[in-house]
Write a structure and sequence with these properties.
Distance between the termini: 41 Å
Strand content: 15-25%
CATH architecture: 3-Layer(aba) Sandwich
Strand order of the largest sheet: 3-2-1-4-5-7-6
Oligomer: single chain
Number of helices: 9
Helix content: 25-40%
Structural class: alpha/beta
Radius of gyration: 17 Å
Largest sheet: 7 strands, mixed
CATH class: Alpha Beta
Number of strands: 7
């Protein structure tokens, strides 16, 4: 598979519609005044919201097509294939690095962790959001002896890597991060994970709260907020 060509094809066929509730959740965790990097940011939907909120923000993206769309929005965007290239920034340059729904699409997710750690200043914040392969629906399907391929969920065929919460915490520790906060996002729009009743008024609130309280079981997306270990806190 040529991942660069696949990314170009994907973004050529997809517009800017995105789950704004998920982006709002990420924005709420970005420290005030942070210098932010969004890694594999697509056409820049998250980066654009960060910029509008007053943050100094840069982004990288593997797809040249998506990068061109980000540049057209006035964003500081560069093409970078994190499977084979280093992020084009010096060490400890940013005070917040965000990877949103990205590392599950990479061949070498370890390299992504390493590069995110390198460009983040000591004491800086790393926000990582990935789909949760241990969602209760996936567990039930595996218990029944079936691979839980669900479009739009962790097991979507476009994903190359699969993550559960214990592995993510271990990866954070191995790369010099201290996890401060873990939460989950239900993503109730994924119909293969959630029966329609879960999107009904009132019921939606319950399952959204369950995803935040017990992300390993009820969240479609796992969101970890971690600080980079170091003697000096980023400012």
């Amino acid at each position: 598979m040529d991942l660069v060509k696949e990314a170009d094809r994907y973004w050529d066929a997809k517009d800017d519609r995105v789950d704004q509730e998920r982006l709002s959740l990420l924005l709420s965790l970005v420290p005030r005044g942070a210098r932010v990097l969004v890694v594999d940011g697509g056409p820049g939907m998250l980066a654009e919201r960060l910029q509008h909120a007053g943050f100094e923000v840069c982004m990288t993206e593997v797809s040249a097509h998506a990068t061109a769309r980000a540049l057209a929005k006035g964003l500081r965007a560069q093409v970078c294939d994190t499977d084979t290239q280093s992020l084009p920034f010096p060490d400890a340059h940013f005070t917040c690095v965000i990877s949103d729904s990205a590392i599950e699409h990479r061949f070498d997710h370890i390299r992504v962790f390493t590069e995110c750690a390198r460009v983040l200043a000591p004491g800086g914040i790393f926000l990582l959001l990935v789909p949760n392969i241990a969602h209760w629906r996936h567990r039930l399907q595996l218990l029944c002896g079936r691979w839980p391929e669900v479009r739009g969920a962790a097991s979507d065929r476009c994903h190359l890597r699969f993550f559960a919460l214990p592995e993510l915490r271990a990866l954070m520790r191995q790369h010099g991060f201290h996890v401060q906060h873990t939460t989950g996002y239900a993503a109730l729009w994924v119909k293969g994970l959630w029966p329609s009743v879960c999107r009904a008024p009132g019921v939606k609130w319950i399952f959204s709260r369950l995803a935040r309280a017990w992300p390993a079981l009820f969240a479609r997306d796992l969101l970890l907020s971690a600080t980079k270990n170091g003697l000096q806190r980023a400012t």
